[in-house]
Design the sequence.
């Protein structure tokens, strides 16, 4: 392992570290307690799989990683352990696994780019440019999506907030330089197929380093190899179909997304203090939040849409953030493919949609749902069957036969592989 | 008609003289309009379009009113999402209640829209709606604005029109933006309700004015916006104005309907205080003063006469020949040459186009060359009327100007127990009680408690332009 790789390994996936590192890739809702998976207490033991049972070969073993056996479960999501040349780490959920493997492939590609002979001179040239020199960014690229240390970022924001006529030439040059740098960073992230806002310090540091060389040093993007064997991201059906969302994600800086998010959250009726929490959340990246908010905005006419935001600010890990984002996408899909959602209601960390036709649907992000104490507590807290309708649990993945039986006995209808269902069913006409 | 519109008017003159139905050379395929690929490109295209629009429409020069609108706009722009455009806010010199934005941050609210607002909250919501279009780069989805600045200028009133989806998006973002800047998001609801009232007064039906063209149905839209405003949580902040009364006070003296400084009719006589001339069209004709030309149409619609600025300077022959060069093959030239009219060395072209007789006379007057275009099917009558109108072009005297009147907004204070009719009678308000009610968002049967501020319209003398007014002589 090279020194650079050792450095990467030491920080890899500790993420923004607002939560303990071991939680970063874990699903923290709902938590399994002792006895929750004890067959003697009537629960199923979370399944264990060989990685090859769940993953295609290309995903299981890549040039820079290997998913080890066994793959365990927390009763909702698969829990993978990935061994890579950047370290060994744990990740919960198929969706986050794909993201992680993409980041590993991107890191390898970035490292390869920095070994190109033209890279070091390009970075040296970049160091002399006003924007880079002002905050000495080339010497130690920042490990965050800001692209610079926190104090420098605050200084930049102050320049941005000033009237254009009140800025000095140096300040204007710094601002312009940042915007060009940010654009280069975004292009680079897109080239590598990773989320430019990812809470991954190792990835962010290398993105920043290479982006500096790209924007100010004349290093060509074509010299950055495409990541090898990076998996396609899991479903993001609306990020592709929603032109405005696609444009926001492709073209807007993190600060732009924050600004537009702040406005949209206000319109959704989210109180300012809750909005501030969401916008500065350690795990909800601008990308997560933008997709989540765009999904809610698309549900025009739905009452109490802020319930999902109120739930999402409880995210305590990167997995949680993805769960809420995908939950929002599923709600939007229900609204657009099934029936208009009349109202959202928060039940703890889950959100239930009441449809115009009276049905109640709770989207649940799972890989494989098994009957555990955690699930029993979840359904016990949820409103059960009533005279009007069966409550429905719409799963992104599947449920074990036992889980289906237990849920049915409690008056729940289980719908599996919901995203695939939406793809089969045409979008209904507008509300 | 505006002095500023010289370049545009020259283009229009050529276009007007070439009837649509005349044969043309096979047109070359039109190049694909440029795509607004970056915000920087937006700014460049927007600046170009803004120059054309401002030349064609004009902006209100009142420094205090401009500063007020700009201060409200700047406060909103600080909260705007998207690219950090250097937003610019202007008052378009037009009485049609309208607002529009060009790519790159050029935002316009018309004189009429400004007069319709009852508070800074309403004005802020209108501006915020336009900022939302700019910030979301909606113009990139409407290429003709940037792709052809002249088209934008000619069709500027349609610049407010976006697709339903884009309008809904701007409605939402605009209300949110206004709320974040400390303005009541329900201000947009009140403004739209006002627009609807005005349109009902004008047309007797809720057909929507320009600002609402292609927008979702007004009633639906107002209802959606009111509902949205109700769910937005916002904190009011002190405004640029001290409150609605101060806002209205800032509108005092705003020109209502046509701006006399840009020319006005008294009967069929046209007066242009800034350019210092007057011209008389035939009695009984329908007259029209547009930003780029002034003209009249015969009652049987078989003859029309227009006056436009053709060129700067005094060389009428050069202006006429340049115009001739710009004509297509569909124009059949009969004669062209110098002619002396009321002591001026002028240039006249006679011909026919599309079955109509055409006379174009180029007449120098005070540093500009005017083109008086006459078109009609009856050659003898056309010649007589055209000569009469052309010869009527003469300097505007202080006496003539003194007889002209213009209308301005007046904010009156109501007295206790007063009805709208009584208020109008006392203040010389020229709006009917129904119009006054509509422009103020009041019930026409309203009896005032006293102290309410009411927008009204008064007529007064046209002020002499800066520099001493119409000059005697040539």
Sequence:
């Amino acid at each position: 392992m090279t020194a650079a790789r050792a450095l990467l390994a030491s920080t890899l996936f500790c993420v923004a570290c607002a939560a303990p590192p071991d939680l970063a890739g874990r699903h923290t809702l709902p938590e399994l307690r002792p006895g929750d998976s004890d067959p003697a207490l009537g629960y199923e033991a979370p399944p264990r799989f060989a990685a090859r049972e769940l993953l295609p070969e290309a995903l299981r073993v890549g040039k820079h990683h290997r998913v080890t056996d066994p793959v365990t479960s927390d009763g909702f999501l698969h829990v993978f352990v990935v061994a890579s040349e950047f370290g060994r780490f744990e990740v919960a959920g198929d969706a986050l696994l794909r993201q992680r493997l993409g980041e590993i492939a991107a890191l390898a590609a970035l490292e390869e780019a920095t070994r190109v002979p033209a890279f070091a001179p390009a970075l040296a040239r970049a160091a002399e440019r006003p924007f880079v020199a002002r905050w000495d960014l080339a010497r130690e690229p920042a490990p965050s999506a800001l692209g610079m240390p926190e104090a420098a970022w605050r200084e930049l924001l102050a320049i941005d907030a000033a009237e254009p006529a009140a800025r000095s030439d140096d300040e204007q040059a710094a601002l312009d330089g940042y915007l060009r740098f940010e654009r280069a960073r975004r292009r680079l992230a897109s080239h590598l197929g990773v989320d430019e806002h990812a809470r991954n310090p190792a990835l962010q540091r290398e993105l920043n380093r290479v982006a500096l060389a790209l924007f100010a040093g004349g290093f060509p993007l074509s010299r950055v190899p495409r990541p090898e064997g990076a998996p396609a991201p899991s479903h993001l059906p609306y990020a592709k179909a929603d032109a405005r969302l696609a444009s926001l994600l492709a073209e807007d800086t993190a600060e732009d997304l924050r600004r537009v998010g702040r406005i949209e959250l206000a319109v959704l009726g989210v109180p300012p203090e809750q909005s501030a929490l969401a916008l500065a959340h350690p795990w909800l990246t601008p990308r997560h939040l933008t997709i989540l908010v765009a999904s809610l905005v698309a549900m025009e006419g739905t009452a109490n849409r802020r319930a999902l935001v109120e739930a999402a600010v409880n995210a305590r890990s990167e997995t949680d953030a993805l769960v809420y984002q995908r939950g929002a996408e599923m709600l939007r899909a229900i609204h657009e493919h099934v029936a208009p959602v009349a109202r959202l209601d928060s039940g703890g960390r889950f959100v239930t949609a009441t449809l115009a036709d009276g049905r109640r649907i709770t989207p649940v992000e799972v890989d494989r749902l098994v009957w555990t104490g955690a699930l029993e507590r979840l359904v016990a807290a949820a409103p059960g069957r009533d005279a009007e309708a069966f409550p429905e649990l719409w799963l992104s993945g599947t449920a074990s036969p036992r889980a289906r039986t237990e849920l049915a006995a409690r008056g729940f209808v289980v719908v599996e592989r919901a995203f695939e269902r939406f793809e089969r069913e045409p979008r209904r006409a507008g509300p | 008609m505006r002095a500023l519109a010289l370049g545009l008017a020259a283009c229009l003159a050529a276009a007007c003289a070439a009837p649509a139905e005349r044969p043309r050379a096979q047109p070359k395929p039109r190049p694909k309009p440029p795509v607004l690929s970056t915000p920087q490109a937006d700014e460049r295209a927007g600046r170009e379009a803004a120059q054309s629009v401002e030349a064609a429409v004009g902006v209100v020069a009142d420094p205090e009113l401009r500063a007020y609108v700009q201060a409200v706009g700047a406060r909103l722009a600080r909260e705007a999402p998207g690219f950090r455009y250097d937003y610019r806010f202007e008052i378009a010199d037009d009485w049609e209640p309208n607002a529009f934005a060009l790519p790159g941050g050029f935002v316009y609210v018309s004189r009429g829209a400004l007069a319709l607002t009852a508070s800074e909250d309403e004005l802020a919501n209108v501006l915020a709606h336009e900022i939302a279009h700019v910030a979301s780069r909606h113009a990139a989805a409407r290429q003709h604005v940037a792709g052809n600045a002249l088209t934008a200028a000619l069709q500027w009133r349609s610049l407010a029109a976006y697709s339903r989806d884009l309008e809904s998006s701007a409605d939402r973002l605009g209300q949110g933006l206004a709320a974040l800047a400390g303005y009541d998001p329900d201000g947009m609801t009140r403004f739209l309700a006002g627009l609807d009232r005005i349109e009902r007064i004008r047309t007797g039906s809720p057909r929507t004015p320009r600002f609402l063209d292609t927008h979702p149905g007004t009633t639906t839209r107002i209802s959606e916006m009111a509902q949205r405003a109700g769910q937005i949580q916002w904190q009011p902040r002190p405004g640029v104005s001290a409150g609605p009364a101060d806002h209205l006070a800032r509108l005092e003296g705003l020109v209502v309907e046509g701006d006399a400084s840009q020319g006005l009719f008294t009967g069929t006589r046209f007066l242009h205080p800034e350019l210092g001339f007057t011209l008389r069209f035939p009695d009984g004709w329908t007259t029209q003063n547009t930003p780029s030309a002034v003209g009249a149409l015969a009652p049987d619609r078989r003859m029309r006469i227009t006056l436009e600025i053709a060129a700067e300077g005094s060389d009428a022959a050069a202006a006429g020949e340049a115009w001739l060069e710009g004509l297509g093959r569909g124009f059949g030239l009969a004669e062209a040459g110098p002619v002396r009219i009321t002591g001026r060395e002028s240039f006249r072209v006679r011909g026919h186009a599309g079955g109509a007789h055409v006379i174009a006379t180029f007449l120098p007057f005070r540093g500009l060359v005017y083109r008086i275009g006459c078109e009609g099917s009856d050659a003898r009558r056309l010649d007589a009327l055209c000569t009469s109108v052309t010869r009527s072009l003469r300097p505007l005297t202080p006496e003539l100007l003194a007889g002209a009147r213009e209308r301005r907004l007046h904010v009156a204070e109501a007295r206790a127990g007063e009805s709208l009719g009584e208020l109008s009678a006392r203040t010389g308000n020229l709006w009917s009680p129904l119009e006054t009610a509509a422009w103020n968002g009041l019930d026409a049967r309203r009896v005032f408690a006293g102290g309410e501020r009411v927008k009204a319209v008064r007529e007064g003398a046209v002020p002499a332009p800066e520099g001493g007014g119409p000059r005697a002589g040539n």
